[in-house]
Amino acid sequence: MVSRGQGTKRPNLLFLMADDHAGYVLGADGDRQAATPNLDRLAGEGLRFSRHYCNSPVCTPSRQSLLTGQMPHSAGVTQLRTALSEEKPTLAKQLRAAGYQTAAFGKMHFNQPGRPGLHGFDVCMTEDQMMKRWREAVKEGPLPEGVATQPLPWQPFRTPAAQWLNAEKRPYPRVDAEMRGTFIAEQACEYLEANAGKPFALWVSLHEPHSPFDFPVEDRERFAAETFTAPRVGPEDAWQIPLIFRGLSDEQKRGIMAAYYTSAHFLDRNLGRVLGKLKELGLEEETLVVYTADHGYCLGHHGRFEKHCGYEPALRVPLLVRWPGRVKAGVVTDFTEHVDLGPAVLEMLGAPALPVMHGQALTPYLRGGRPGKPRDHVFLEYQENEEVYIRDARWKFIHGSGKRRRMDGYETDNPAPGRYSRLFDLRRDPGEFRDVSARERQVVERMMARALGRFRESHPDAGGEPGGLGAAEALDYYLRPRDNAPAAEAPARV
After folding, report:
1. Does the pLDDT at position 169 exceed 70?
2. Domains of the chain, with CATH numbers?
3. CA-to-CA distance for 13 and 155, rounded, in angstroms?
4. 381-402 residue pLDDT tens
5. Is the bond preceding residue 417 a cis peptide, omega within 30 degrees?
6. Where are the alpha helices (DSSP H) in 281-327?
7. pLDDT tens digit sequence for 307-349
8. Is the Cα torsion angle 390, 317, 130, 212 positive or negative in sign?
9. What does 77-132 look like in DSSP terms, one character per residue?
10. Model pTM score
11. Long-range contacts: 112-115, Cβ < 8 Å, 24+?
């Protein structure tokens, strides 16, 4: 813990976040096609967590779980359209109580208008406020002749998937200086300049590389679609490929991948602008920098171009932490979860702990050590489809009630198939194609017990679990969404 007496001022926090940035699309993770030089530099200067997982593969539950330190079912946000209760404790509230100036710029998925004080942020320039300010401050200039750009407005699920997934790799109809992502980065830079002499906790949350994978016209030739190869899709995948993706051609899939990688490159450039300002102001050594994403993304894996599922590309996310002189550079290969991050941030900055914490704080890693008992598995939930996922060093377990007709737009041939449990041996089958649950019943039982243990120790309705239920029935009890969010409108289903 850092005391008030250390140094001339309290350390700052710069919390950088992306939307849909998969952990494997990162040069530092070994992806030779990824163009992420600023994030790679951050990873080299800090600590990279190579097996870090979100706790839900959908935006709002993941983000609010991270902000509160509670599992989604305890935070009360398990569906996309649910708003976090203002009564919930958050990292920002704890940091403000410790004397920090708190601010959020960009995409936070609060599902209500941003305003000063919301969830502990003194400055709360979230989606609605940022969009308004951007449109007022930045006007569109002329574009080069003959450049095909994205058709607007963006209409996911209302136009063919190839269009809202940007298979033609079209830029947003603006140049770099006029882009919303650039504007958010510039607003963050202005905040850093204005608050350089105060202890601040600043969240900068960009929209990229979420579909339609925005990038400016200058980047339109950055990646060629033909340099990508979509992951194989076998006959074992047919039943679970969402209907919305069934008509995509191989050429379109390659174009989608190229658009995603281009958007990730644009994200990296804007993160570099913010990190560059931090350095210019001489604040690097007194600022804890964190970079992560809400969840990962499938780029053709199992025929899918989204998250909303239990496959590895949708679950593993980047986590980079830098604090020169305090956090030793390196790579952590132990399993870690999003709920582990917030408690460590508060502890490192000397702020009061969250009253409810479901994670195992990452602090020992940040201090150059290792917990006495590192995680031996990770736990995730997707209650829109009433699914739970457990992954350890060898096995991936997926259980679903099969009762709920999902309303996220990704229905399959059989939208309510009945209860199912699947098990993949990741040592022999890293692509998660062959379900071995029938012959590995002991492993299935062990995984069910782990999942039930996590629910029973953290779910607010654990005391009401009916008696006499088998393990599968008990899991079904916990997987039912309790927040009762309204059905999502098409544009918000992504």
Report:
1. yes
2. 12-376 (3.40.720.10), 378-492 (3.30.1120.10)
3. 36
4. 999 999 999 999 999 999 999 9
5. no
6. 312-315
7. 999 999 999 999 999 999 999 999 999 999 999 999 999 999 9
8. negative
9. --STTPPPPTTS--HHHHHHHTT-EEEEEE----SS---TTGGG-SEEE-HHHHHH
10. 0.95
11. 112/83
